[in-house]
Specification:
This protein has about 130 residues and is mainly beta. The protein is built from 1 helix and 10 strands. The protein binds FE2/S2 (inorganic) cluster.
Length: about 130
Amino acid sequence: MSDKPIALKVFRFDPAIDRAPRYENYQVPWREGLLLLCALEYVRDHLDETLAFRDYCCGCSWCSSCVMTVDGKGIRTCSRPLYPGESLVVEPMRGFPVIKDLAVDFGVTVATPEGTYRKMEGTIIRKEKRS
Ligand code: FES
């Protein structure tokens, strides 16, 4: 199997200092079992310590704290496997205020194209799915 790196185009924005969002490109070495949230940890730990995102909470697709918009769709990044040579655009979850980069404020109820999300006991759960 190929060991081509993963190419991530990542949304960057700090509302406290930036006038407008931008995108940064990162290359992450692929390995068997690599998940998207692990790839973001690699970026933060090895390439750019300023990247902000919500790290693992449950790590098992339950709490939804790791949801982000990936290639235009809202997904749980802790359960998204990566494949050699993949290229992905990673953005904050749509509809939520950006705190910094990929970290958003989930303290509200928001309707998105992927469904309605609401805060409940510190976690975010999907309330309903739109047709
Ligand atoms: S960390 Fe809980 S669903 Fe991803």
